[in-house]
Automatic annotation (TrEMBL):
The chain crosses the membrane at residues 21-46, 73-95, 102-119, 125-148, 160-182, 194-213, 290-311, 317-339, 346-369, 389-414, 426-443, 463-481. This is Glucose transporter. It is a multi-pass membrane protein. Residues 540-555 have a biased composition (Low complexity). It comes from the Eukaryota. The keyword Transmembrane helix applies. The keyword Transmembrane applies. Belongs to the major facilitator superfamily. Sugar transporter (TC 2.A.1.1) family. Keywords: Membrane, Sugar transport, Transmembrane, Transmembrane helix, Transport. PANTHER family: MAJOR FACILITATOR SUPERFAMILY (MFS) PROFILE DOMAIN-CONTAINING PROTEIN (PTHR48022:SF40), PLASTIDIC GLUCOSE TRANSPORTER 4 (PTHR48022). One of its GO terms (molecular function) is carbohydrate:proton symporter activity. The gene is RCO3. InterPro entries: MFS_dom (IPR020846), MFS_sugar_transport-like (IPR005828), MFS_Sugar_Transporters (IPR050360), MFS_trans_sf (IPR036259), Sugar/inositol_transpt (IPR003663), Sugar_transporter_CS (IPR005829). It comes from Coniochaeta pulveracea. Residues 525-561 are annotated as: Disordered.
Length: 581
């Protein structure tokens, strides 16, 4: 019952088992641990005395203390971002050339190489090389993991599996905070070398697991390796390679790919100008990824501690930890409802919740006067303390809304909306835009926030900026994001062709069979075959008893190839089975 409410009921008429794909999807999701841990660890490490002792170059701060200079800190932090951006862009060429699985393995290799450099570093330049390589690995993994997951997952639980990736990111962030607290008390370089080195443990486990995992059937079809695709699908669905349901699923993926290729090529130019509606789809992915950052999450992750200090909290480390725990735990509700609510509703509700929190914070701050100067610590004025306590509460609620919606669902949608031919490229460009904004916000906001010459002096009113972007996000989702839950990746392609406006997408019912369209000789607009096949094949996106291919639907079409005739007979023999994963 609860499973049904989550939208997790495997349709009764789906052949085979979904268990292998689910287990593999969850395991691969743990690639997010590297993302979260690596981005989270540096904050604590930079604050460790042993780190400063090892890497300082003699800079003394205003209090006369020998420490790292601001520019050294900036470059150490920035190097990871530069690496992630490059890594995200690299993910497409390697993912399309070597396959998704092998590319994840290589990315983890590059990441580990970077980590080893960091652990062994005793001078800043070596550390920087290490951070750049580790960043490349993380950036590539951040594209390839959701890509791998979406291409092998059954449609009825695909969103939840991709959400598990964000859950791992939040677990990684939390783990980094905990490890930093534990090791910061150690004397000597082990205080920072242990948190750095620990990343290798999971990298090894993940690599070993990936060695025995299948490549995604969709990549293999794209690469023309049909037999390998059949074997992969047979492992994922626990079906014999001669099983009609398996043959049918493969044929549909293949026919869809051929159809998409007939519409336009698969170059980088095509992800912006190609058909069908690739520009709109790329804009949706990039927009979502950028807005995910513009909701201000990393401002809170990176600068939130200042608020907790300002609110008279004696242990800002503990409060940061509590925020990380909220971030982790709140991802679970999102993961639970992403199928039953759908992507659009979750994103809109999340953006409304975040907007209310951000605007409340900004308004309260303006009303009480920005007595607390960001970055400059405490204020004992009781009015400010109460104000700041309100801020903490709303920051916590904001984190809840982010973690339950935009945190995971951004990855879900960007892994679903592109056709196979450009999926890796478009995902890599949209993910790179996330990293670019991540970097921009981490480095730009202090300039917006701080007082003084050359600074914006916004203080906590910067929350107006995040709140405004949350409102933009509501409209963006309403106008641009198509509802992709419960339908296969191939049916999402059909939806983009047949539904002109995102707000009508929820009621879309797939009815094309790309195989039949191919057999009829599809036109490059898709219009002709649609007219002939529409309404003959009416699977329901919501019903678990929906059938993709009814006997009537199949028999009304004259298949041109004899191989296809044979498959059709087999399909008719086994009755109403949902073949679309
Ligand atoms: O959970 C917060 C984390 O999630 C991300 O937005 C990725 O989805 C990161 O940029 C951020 O640090």
């Amino acid at each position: 019952m609860a499973k049904l409410a989550m939208g997790w009921s495997k349709p009764d008429n789906v052949a085979g088992s979904s268990a292998p794909a689910i287990l593999i999807g969850i395991f691969v999701a743990t690639g997010g641990l590297l993302f979260g841990y690596d981005t989270g660890a540096i904050n604590g490490i930079l604050g460790m005395d042993s780190f400063t002792r090892q890497f300082n170059t003699g800079y003394t701060n205003a209090e006369g203390r020998v420490t790292m200079s601001p520019s050294e800190i900036a470059i150490i932090v920035a190097m990871l971002s530069a690496g992630t951006f490059v890594g995200a862009l690299m993910a497409a060429p390697i993912g399309d050339y070597l396959g998704r699985r092998l590319s994840i393995l290589i990315s983890i290799g590059i990441f580990s190489f970077g980590v080893i450099f960091q652990v062994c570093a005793n001078k800043i330049p070596i550390l920087l090389v290490g951070r750049f390589f580790a960043g490349q690995g993380v950036g590539a993994v951040s594209v390839l993991v959701p890509l791998y997951q979406s291409e092998m997952a059954p449609k009825w639980i695909r969103g939840t599996l991709v959400c598990a990736y964000q859950l791992s990111i939040t677990l990684g962030l939390l783990a980094a905070a905990v490890v930093n607290i534990l090791t910061s008390k150690l004397h000597g370089s082990s205080a920072y070398r242990i948190p750095m080195g620990l990343q290798l443990t999971w990298a090894c486990v993940l690599s070993l697991g990936l060695l025995i995992m299948p490549e995604t059937p969709r990549f293999l079809i794209k690469n023309g390796q049909k037999e390998a695709a059949a074997l992969s699908l047979s492992r994922l669905r626990r079906l014999d390679i001669t099983h009609p349901a398996l043959i049918e699923e493969l044929h549909e993926i293949e026919a869809n790919h051929e159809y998409e290729m007939a519409l336009s090529a698969d170059s980088y130019k095509d992800i912006f100008f190609g058909s069908p509606h690739l520009g709109r789809r790329t804009l949706t992915g990039c927009g979502l990824q950028m807005l995910q950052q513009l909701t201000g999450v990393n401002f809170i992750m990176y600068y939130g501690t200042v608020f907790f200090v300002g609110a008279n909290v004696s242990n800002p480390f503990t409060i940061s930890l509590v925020m990380q725990i909220i971030n982790l735990v709140s991802t679970i509700p999102g993961l639970l409802v992403v199928e039953s609510w759908g992507r659009r509703k979750l994103l809109i509700v999340g953006a409304v919740g975040m907007a209310i929190c951000q605007l409340t914070i900004a308004s309260v701050t303006t009303a009480i006067g920005d007595t607390r100067n960001l970055g400059h610590g405490q204020d004992n004025d009781p009015k400010a303390v109460v104000g700041n306590q309100i801020l903490i509460i709303f920051v916590a609620i904001y984190v809840f809304f982010f973690a339950a919606s935009w945190g995971p669902v951004t990855w879900v949608v960007t892994s679903e909306i592109y056709p196979l031919k450009v999926r890796a490229k478009a995902m890599s460009v949209s993910t790179a835009s996330n990293w670019l904004l991540n970097f921009g916000i981490a480095y730009g906001t202090p300039y917006m926030v701080e007082q003084g010459q050359g600074y914006g002096g916004l203080g906590a009113r910067v929350f107006f900026v995040w709140g405004a972007f949350c409102i933009v996000a509501i409209f963006f989702v309403y106008c641009m994001v198509y509802e992709t839950s419960k339908i296969s990746l191939e049916q999402i392609d059909e939806m983009y062709e047949r539904v002109s406006y995102a707000w009508n997408s929820k009621s879309f019912e797939p009815s094309w069979s790309f195989q039949q369209m191919r057999d009829l000789g599809f036109s490059d607009s898709g219009v002709q075959p649609q007219q002939e096949t529409q309404h003959e094949l009416e699977p329901s996106r919501s019903s678990s008893t929906g059938t993709t291919h009814t006997d009537t639907g199949i028999s009304n079409i004259t298949a041109s190839s004899s191989a296809h005739d044979h498959d059709t007979k087999l399909i008719n023999q086994i009755g109403a089975v949902d073949f679309s994963y």
